[in-house]
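W.,

You were right to be curious about this one. When I first looked at the sequence I had no strong expectations either way, so I just let the prediction run and decided to look at it fresh. Below is the sequence, 271 residues in total, followed by the output.
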Amino acid sequence: MELNIARLEDRLLVISSAVGAPVYDFDFDLNFSCTHPYEFRGSELCVLRIGAVREYEAEYAEKADWGLRLVNSPEEHFRASELEGWYPLIPDLTPTTRIFQSLPSASEIESEFEWPVFVKGSRQTSKHNPDLSIARDPGDYSRLCDGYRRDEILNWQRPVIRQFVQLEPIAGDVPNKIRPSREFRTFWWNGELVGCGHYWYQLPAYGAADLEAGISVAREAARRVSVPFLVVDIARTTSGDWIVIECNDAQEAGYVGLPPTVLWQNILDRV
């Protein structure tokens, strides 16, 4: 992995590596005044942009040996990126959820949920593949389980069953994805909103007349989860309510419909 170590505007160090995803990759050197230091300023604040990190504690320790302090500690990374970290803090803001150690039986699901249910891994879905996300009845769930066990994204994650909530749909479809809804991604830097973009970036930009109500829900989630660099995804339901879809460590999150330059300038203004 080729790393780009850049100090942006002499204010913030970012370590990045291209992962081949246009919605995630960003050329800092083309958009900001950057230097590329070999020495660091003693526990210097640093943001990591190298995609999903499986061994965050080891990554954090390595960067500490370099003289750097990643923006989120290992504990904060867990609280942001693992559902069992953030869900207990915001159960009233997001659909009812149960984390299992292995795929539960249909009868176990039926004891707590009604069909259909939403299925995901403890960290993420498999690229929003509907065949691996929504089970409408026990037979459908059995088929989904077979795919879950074979899927390279899901098979290493603990399975999660969530209450299925009807979200407000938007115009357009994205091939091989669940039905796009009025969903937004919000970025938070030390509790301050630094960016909000439409989640389904593959479609024309969309908004919401009451988006501020959704941002208020995301703000409360960010306050409770209390992670320095956090993403909170929100969506509007068909009943007009705003809910949290999930949280994540913003170091690992794609920009979706938010221009990256806007996000990073807003962060630099607060460093």
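Here's what jumped out at me. Residues 145 and 179 are 21 Å apart (CA to CA). And, maybe more interesting for your project: The radius of gyration is 19 Å.

Coffee later to discuss?

I.
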